[in-house]
Write a sequence for this structure.
């Protein structure tokens, strides 16, 4: 069964510092992987997705993620944090070819950005 | 123009009441979903409809009944509300069911509080 683990429920960085949010997945078939962001009192917005076309995926707002099959990881990074990046981030996995195709979410990582 | 909209945004009601949440998407998508986000921000799928047909029905009390009058709408009706139903409910849509490259687009959420 597929699953997602996000290490660290809360990450705090200083403005301008590197952002690294960790995501590990478990899947018996090649997965599709997604990162979503949720700003306070809002719905989820897609940051980026991995669909096997390229292992390094660039998303919106300067975020990117690298798919590493050997490590079953899909960590999210941003070189320089901005105050507006403060939000909850969710990693999600969907098994390719799944007949029902549940999108399984991790428990989320809250990113705080200090001035 | 809002892609996925939900009404109401906030819903406060007493135990035992029946309530409905409406969802509409104008993206032309075939698949719609209902998710529940608990107080710890954990997201779990409840239902999924594809072309007005139910394709995912997770372990949800039968007090919850989704209804899809057409591809653009997926409403959620809840009978005999309980305190544990308090959560944020998100509607989402995608071009095709999960298990594909297609990401899901989320509505702004409905915060349900049962007193």
């Amino acid at each position: 069964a597929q699953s997602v683990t996000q290490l660290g429920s809360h990450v705090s960085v200083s403005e301008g510092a590197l952002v690294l949010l960790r995501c590990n997945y478990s899947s018996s078939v090649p997965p599709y992987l997604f990162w979503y962001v949720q700003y306070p009192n809002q719905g989820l917005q897609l940051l980026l997705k991995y669909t096997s076309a390229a292992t390094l995926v660039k998303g919106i707002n300067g975020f990117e993620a690298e798919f590493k099959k050997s490590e079953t990881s899909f960590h999210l990074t941003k070189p320089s944090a901005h105050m507006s990046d403060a939000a909850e981030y969710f990693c999600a996995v969907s098994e390719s070819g799944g007949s029902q195709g549940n999108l399984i979410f991790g428990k989320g990582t809250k990113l705080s950005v200090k001035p | 123009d809002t892609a996925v909209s939900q009404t109401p945004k906030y819903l406060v009601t007493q135990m035992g009441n029946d309530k409905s949440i409406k969802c509409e998407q104008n993206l032309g998508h075939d698949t719609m979903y209902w998710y529940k986000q608990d107080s710890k921000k954990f997201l779990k799928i409840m239902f999924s409809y594809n072309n007005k047909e139910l394709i995912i029905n997770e372990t949800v009390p039968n007090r919850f009944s989704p209804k899809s009058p057409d591809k653009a709408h997926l409403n959620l009706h809840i009978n005999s509300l309980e305190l544990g139903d308090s959560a944020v409910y998100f509607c989402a849509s995608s071009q095709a069911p999960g298990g594909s490259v297609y990401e899901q687009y989320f509505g702004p959420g409905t915060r349900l509080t049962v007193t």
About this structure: Chain B touches chain A at residues 4, 33, 40-45, 48, 55-56, 90, 92, 97-101, 103-109 (CB under 8 Å). The mean pLDDT of chain B is 90.
